[in-house]
Amino acid sequence: MTPLLEVRRLVKHFVRKQGVFRAPSVVRAVDDVTFAIDEGEMFGLVGESGSGKSTTGRCILRLIEPTSGEVFFRGENVLQFSTERMRLARRDMQIVFQDPYSSLNPRMRVGDIVEEPLVIHRLGSKPERRARVAELFELVGLEPAHVLRYPHEFSGGQRQRIGIARALALNPALVIADEAVSALDVSIQAQVVKLLLDLKERLKLTYLFIAHDLRLVEHICTRVAVMYMGKIVELGETRALFASPTHPYTKALLSAIPVLDPDGPRHRIELDPTSFEREAPLKEIGAQHWAAV
Amino acid sequence: MADSLDPARDKPLLDVQHLTVTFGGATPAVDDVSFSIARGETLGLVGESGSGKSVTAFSILRLLQSPGRISGGRVMFEGRDLLTVTEGEMREVRGAGISLIFQEPMTALNPVMRVGDQIAEALLVHGKASRTEARARAVELLEAVKIADASRRVRDYPHQLSGGMRQRVMIAIALACRPPLVIADEPTTALDVTIQAQVLELLRELKARYNLALLLITHDFGVIAEMADHVAVMYKGRLVEHGAVREVLRHPSHDYTRNLLAAVPGAGGPEGPPLHPHVRSGGPSGPPATPQ
Questions:
Q1: Which helix (H) or strand (E) holds B174?
Q2: In 3D, which of B201, B208, B10, B4 has the Cα closest to residue A269?
Q3: Average pLDDT, whole number, for chain A?
Q4: Hey, which of A114, A176, A232, B119 has its CA 20 to 30 A from A160?
Q5: pLDDT band, residue B26 (cuts 50/70/90)
Q6: Looking at CA atoms only, how far is residue B180 from chain A in angstroms?
Q7: CA distances from residue A154 to A99, A100, A111, A207 in whole angstroms, order as listed
C-alpha cells in the first residue's frame, strides 16, 4: 500500500545574515526528516519549541519552501508541482492553525471565512456554496444561523471549529493540525479533540497532528514521531514508544510530564546532550519502532 | 512532599475570607471566595480561563485595574486586613510580604534594563540594601535560582536569556526581599515541558530552603499533583471544591472537578480509561524509508 503522505529527507535551512563582515549563520530547522503516513492514520509529530515540527508541517504544504527533500502525496512529489498544480493539490491537504484568534480575519464574517476556499477554487454557484457552508457549520457543531457573525463574537473553542470548517470546505484527504488545540482550556480541548476524531471517522480523514502535549498525543495518535533539533529521534507506534522510549531525548521528554498522582512515581531524567550521536540514523529497535541510537 | 501544616491548628499566613470582586456587571468575577494558606504550604488554585483565579491573585495584592473593584471580604495577612491598609503600607507588602511571579516573563521583565539591575531594584525599592549590596545580592540570587555563570549573567538583558532562564530571573526578583508568600500565576504555562520540570523542581527546592508559602495558580492538574498540598478549584468565580490534594484528585466531590479531571488526557491514571482508546486503523504501516 502506498502511504498517503511520504516525506523523504526533508531539509529546511534558514539563513540568517549577520552583517557585511560576518558569515551568515544557518539554522537547520528541519534536518533530514523522513516519515510516512498511511491513509486513515492519526500521526503525531511531537517536540518542544524550536524542534522543527511546525516548519515540517508547513514545508509539506509548501507554505514554506523546503531547502531540499521530497514530499510525496499519493505517490506524486508535490515539491515539483507548478504553482497552479500546487494550488489544486492543496484542496487535498489542509491545515488548522494553533491560534484561533490570529488565524481568522477579524473583518470577515465567519460564513465568508469558511466559504473563501470554495471561492478561491471556483467551486459551485453562490447558493451552492452557501449551502455547503451551512453544512460545514453543522458538521463542526456550530449554529448555521451564525454565519453572519464576526470572529470576535465567538469563544476560542468555537473559533477553532470555524478554522476546522474552513479546512474541511474542500474535502481534503489530509489535515495538518498544527497545535490545533494547544491554546484551548482543557475541557474545550477535549470537545475539539472529540470533534477531530469524529470527523476522521466520518470523512475518512488522515491527520498529521503536530503538538507539544505528549499526554494528548498518547491518547489520540496511532503513531508518533519525536523531533529534537530538526531531526526525528524516535518514531513508532504510540503504545510501544510510550511504554519503552529508547532515545535519550524521548526518555527525558516523557519523564518531564507532570504525573497526575501525587504519590505517583517520579523519575525525572535530565537530558545529557553527549549521550547520543546527533547524526545517528533511525534504526529499527522493535516492531514498528525506530530510534536514532 | 512533606505533609502540610494543618491550617486550622496553625494560624494561617494568608486568610482570604468571603472575597468578592465585581467588574461592574451583575455577576461578580470572584464570588464569596474563602481559603487560607499556612506558612510553608502550597495551595494550588486551579480553574479554566475566566474562572476568576488570576483576579483573585490580583485582588490579594490590590492590583486590580478599573473597573475591577473588591466589593466585599477580607484578606488577612500577618495580622492585618490588606483591604483596609493604606496604599503606602500596601507597597511595603508587595514584594517584601507577598510577591508575584507572572506567566509571561518576557512581558513582565523590563526589556531595556539589565536583569541584575531589575533584581537589585526590588531590594532598593524596599530599602533592604545599599546599591553595592544590592548588586552583590543580585548575583547571589541568580545563583540561588541556578543560573550558571551568574556574575556575568547579571549584565544580560532579558532578550539574551532563554524562556526558562527569564522565568528563573522572575523567581529571583520575587525572592529578593525574602517574602513569606509567593503567588505564582501560571509560572510554567509558557514553557516547554522539560523546562517546566526544571522550574518546578527549582520552586520546590526554594520553598523548602526558605519555608515559602506558595499560591500556585494553574490550569494544569498535573502541576497541582506535583506541587500542591491543598487545592482549590474555581469555576465561574466560585470555589467549588477545596481540600487536600490527594483527596480532591482521588475523590473529587464536585461535578465540575470531575469533568475537569476527566478532560485531562490520561487522567484516569495508568489503570483508568484513556480519553480515547488507541485506534489502529488500516493495515500495518510501512516503515519510514530509512535514510541511507
A1: helix B163-175
A2: B201
A3: 93
A4: A232
A5: confident
A6: 24
A7: 13, 10, 13, 25
CA distance A18 to chain B (A): 16
Strand-pair category, A289-291 with A283-286: antiparallel
**pTM (2 d.p.):** 0.84
> In which element (H, E) is residue B21 found?
strand B14-22
- For an interface test with B, the pick among A10, A186, A215, A249 (most B C-beta atoms closer than 10 Å) comes out as A186
Q: Which residues contact B58 (CB under 8 A, 6 or more apart)?
A: B64, B68
Across the interface, whether the CB atoms of A218 and B274 are under 8 A apart is answered yes
Q: Considering chain A, what percentage of its residues have pLDDT values greater than 90?
A: 80
Q: Read off the pLDDT of residues A25-70 as tens digits, 9 standing for 90 and up.
A: 899 999 999 999 999 999 999 999 889 999 999 999 999 999 999 9
Nearest to B291 among A9, A42, A261 (CB): A9
Q: Do residues A271 and B194 touch, judged by C-beta distance below 8 A?
A: yes
Measured between CA atoms, the residue of chain A closest to residue B220 is A186
CA distances from A236 to A209, A222, B168 (A): 14, 9, 35
From CA A92, how far away is CA A107, in angstroms rounded?
27
Chain A residue whose CA is closest to B49 = A185
Q: How far, in Å, CA of B35 to CA of B42, rounded?
A: 12
Q: What is the pLDDT of residues B132-184, one digit of tens each?
A: 999 999 999 999 999 999 999 999 999 999 889 999 999 999 999 999 999 99
Cα–Cα distance for residue pair B56/B34, rounded to 1 Å? 10
Strand B30-37 with B14-22, pairing: antiparallel
Q: Nearest chain A Cα to B246, which residue?
A: A262
Enumerate the residues of chain B whose CB falls inside 8 A of the CB of residue A35: 288
Residue A136, amino acid = L
Predicted local confidence at residue B266, as pLDDT: 64
Comparing CA positions, the residue from A215, A104, A250 lying closest to residue A167 is A104
The CA distance from A128 to the nearest CA of chain B, in Å, is 34
Nearest residue to A258 via CA among B202, B54, B267, B183: B267
